[in-house]
Every structure is written in structure tokens, then in C-alpha cells.
Design a protein that fits this description.
The chain has a domain of about 220 residues: Glycoside hydrolase/deacetylase (TIM Barrel), CATH 3.20.20. Helix content is about 45%, strand content about 10%. Helix 7 runs antiparallel to helix 8.
Length: about 325
């Protein structure tokens, strides 16, 4: 078993040598999916501590990612494009935003500049109730009393073994109900009116992210199905659209969860598994698409290395993880 130190070293080496490996081993044609959450306007805004900084990506970082992908021959596509079938001789990118943050609306001018679509997966109860996501509450309140980022994220990972209702009840008991009230535009979801207007934008495709950002494998079969079905209906009520794509909260899914999503009319599902999706895509793979999560805060060159790593078919990590016969 490889230790965490060795894994981190391999990751660092992979990022450093990704561009060189692409020259030696040309990439296979594929669909690459990228995951985003909210976008910041500046590094200073990240430091305000109003919300979990997560990926630490600014609007300009997002713009550079799109520009870099297009410059390497990729075409930005929508879920409809994917379901209609992608040319196996092409290279494609699917841009996705999870949760329904107000700050994800900052992507619109960039998408308009490039004429690119993106898919925004909405956790509908947060929009309808104007309520903060629990991980932002945990971050804001914990950072405010001096807890380290490592401590906060360790607790967040432990909480993810529970249902959303249980997590919110625990944090409410500790911090009070007022902790779930947004403090600004960084930690709040869109309003119903904002989402309705947002859905009309040419670049916008809406997706299902369950009612409560429910990690579906923590729920029984009926409760998991209800999270999907009722979110579909809520999006239809708010925007007139019934999505065809779902992002599995926390990337967790099962065969039963996929069956429930298909029964609700969903035909494309994205995970948080960092891998390419090779063409042609099978019906099964369409519900289990891998996604890469870019991390900002380290400059443009770091972003480019991360994108190159997502493009490369040969990486040290894959070689080390390859099962022995």
C-alpha cells in the first residue's frame, strides 16, 4: 500500500510532467468534464472567510481554463450534445457547476465571450429556502474560532457519512438556526427569481443535484428516489425545465440510485471521479462520467498543468495503481 506522502509526490510529478507526456503519448479522443462551484472575483474575496473557499477559483481562472482547452482543439458541449452522440474523432469538454451558488452566475459573461455552454446542477431546497449549505456554515463558524483548514475539512468528511437532515440538526444544535442564514453573495444560493431568469440564458443548461444535496448512498431506496424525483419537479415548477442530467452529490452513487434517476427521466450522470471519458460513450458510462476538479490559487501555470494532466492518457498515478495480474 502506498503512503499519502508518496501519493502526493506522484501527483506533483504527474502535474509537472503532464505536458511532456502529452508530446510523447498523444491523447486519445474523449470527453473531459470539469467541476466548479462558486467563482470569486479576486484573491482578496477568497480571504473574507464567508464560505468554504473549496477550489479557490476566480472568474479569470475560469476564463483561462476555457481559453486553454479551446486552444488545444477541444469543443465545449452541452448534455444534449453528449446524448446526441459525439464524433469519436473529436475532443470535448463539459463544463459543470454544482449546488446553485449565486456566485456561479459570474460565469455567464465568460461563457458568452466564448459562445460556450455550461451545466448548472441545482440543489433545489436551498434555492427555495434561501438557506446556506452546511459545509459553508461549518467553515465560517469554525474558521471564526481559529480552527485550521485541515481540522474543518476532516470534520466535514466525517459528517458526509450522514444524511443532510442529520448533519444540519447536529450543526443547528451546536451553532443555532441563524448560522444557516446567508451573510453575503459568496455563501448564498440563487433565489427562485434569479434561477428562473438564469435558466433563460442561452449558455445555461440546468441539472438535478437532489433536493438537499443528499449523498444518496446514505439514504434508503425510497428516500433516495424521492430526493431525485422531487428535485426534478421543483426545477420544473421554478423554471419550466425538467433536466436530463444529474450530478451525484459528493460523487456517490449505486446501481439502485442510477435506476431511480433513469426512472425520473435522467439520462446523463456525472461523478467526482477524476478520469477521462473515452469515446464512444456507452449507455452505462453516460450515467457514470468522470469529472476533474481544478484547484486555483497557484497561478496560471498550475491550472494548465492540471488541465494537461486531465488530458493525458499516461500518468504515473495510473501506472502505479494498475492492478497486477
Amino acid at each position: 500500500m502506498i503512503g499519502s506522502g508518496a501519493v502526493n509526490l506522484i501527483k506533483s510529478l504527474d502535474r509537472s510532467f503532464a505536458s511532456a507526456l502529452l508530446k510523447l503519448f498523444p491523447e486519445h479522443h474523449s470527453l473531459i468534464c470539469f467541476l466548479f462551484h462558486g467563482l470569486f472575483t479576486s484573491r482578496q474575496e477568497i480571504l473574507r472567510g464567508e464560505a468554504d473557499p473549496q477550489q479557490r477559483l476566480t472568474v479569470e481562472d475560469f476564463r483561462h481554463i476555457i481559453d486553454y482547452c479551446l486552444g488545444r482543439g477541444y469543443r465545449i458541449v452541452s448534455p444534449v450534445d453528449v446524448l446526441h452522440g459525439l464524433d469519436i474523432d473529436g475532443k470535448y469538454v463539459l463544463l459543470t457547476f454544482d449546488d446553485g451558488y449565486y456566485s456561479s452566475m459570474r460565469a455567464l459573461p465568460v461563457l458568452g465571450e466564448f459562445g460556450a455552454p455550461a451545466t448548472f446542477f441545482i440543489s433545489t431546497n436551498f434555492v427555495q429556502n434561501n438557506r446556506c449549505f452546511w459545509w459553508d456554515v461549518l467553515w465560517r463558524e469554525s474558521a471564526g474560532i481559529g480552527r485550521s483548514e485541515t481540522e474543518i475539512h476532516r470534520e466535514a468528511e466525517q459528517l458526509k457519512s450522514q444524511t443532510n437532515e442529520s448533519i444540519e440538526a447536529l450543526l443547528t444544535a451546536r451553532l443555532g438556526e441563524r448560522a444557516f442564514l446567508p451573510v453575503g453573495d459568496l455563501d448564498r444560493p440563487m433565489t427562485v427569481a434569479e434561477l428562473r431568469d438564469f435558466a433563460r440564458e442561452k449558455a445555461v443548461n440546468l441539472g438535478n443535484h437532489t433536493l438537499d444535496h443528499a449523498i444518496l448512498t446514505n439514504y434508503g431506496a425510497e428516500a433516495a428516489a424521492a430526493q431525485i424525483i422531487e428535485s426534478q419537479q421543483a426545477l420544473a415548477d421554478m423554471t419550466g425545465e425538467r433536466p436530463i442530467a444529474i450530478a451525484w452529490p459528493n460523487g456517490d452513487y449505486s446501481d439502485a440510485v442510477i435506476s431511480a434517476a433513469r426512472a425520473a427521466g435522467l439520462r446523463l450522470g456525472v461523478t467526482t471521479e477524476p478520469r477521462k471519458n473515452y469515446l464512444p460513450l456507452s449507455e452505462d458510462s453516460l450515467m457514470r462520467l468522470g469529472r476533474f476538479t481544478p484547484i486555483g490559487g497557484r497561478g496560471r501555470r498550475s491550472l494548465e498543468r492540471q488541465i494537461d494532466l486531465s488530458r493525458s492518457d499516461v500518468t504515473l498515478r495510473r501506472i502505479v495503481r494498475r492492478p497486477r495480474r
